[in-house]
C-alpha cells in the first residue's frame, strides 16, 4: 500500500524539518514553537507525558532557549503528512559536551506546521564527547 504525496507537500515538510533543526541549533525556543500548530502534541521522549498546545510546547522548549547546539540531519523520510528523521545533536551541559542521535517522527497539517512530534531516545543514548 502506498501513499501519494505531492512534490510541493514533500518539499514543504522537508523545509519544516530543516527549519526545526536550524531553530534547535540556534537555541531559539520561539523559532521552534512557531513551527507547531496551535493544538499540536509533543512527546519527548516518546511515551512520556504528552504536552498539548503551543503554551505547553513553549514551556518544554524553554530548556533550549539561549543554548546554541550543533545539529546534523542524517536521514529524512516523508510519507503522506508524516516524516521520520534521524539527526545528531551536540550540546553542552556545564563543562561537558554531549552527543545524541534521536529519531523524531512528526505529523503535519496542510501548511506543513507540526501537529504531532514523538522523539525516540533515552538518556542511555547520550554520549559524552568532552
From TrEMBL:
Q: Which residues form the SnoaL-like domain?
A: 17-115
Q: Which residues form the signal peptide?
A: none
Q: Which domain of life is it from?
A: Bacteria
Q: What is this protein called?
A: DUF4440 domain-containing protein
Species assigned in the record: Rhodococcus zopfii
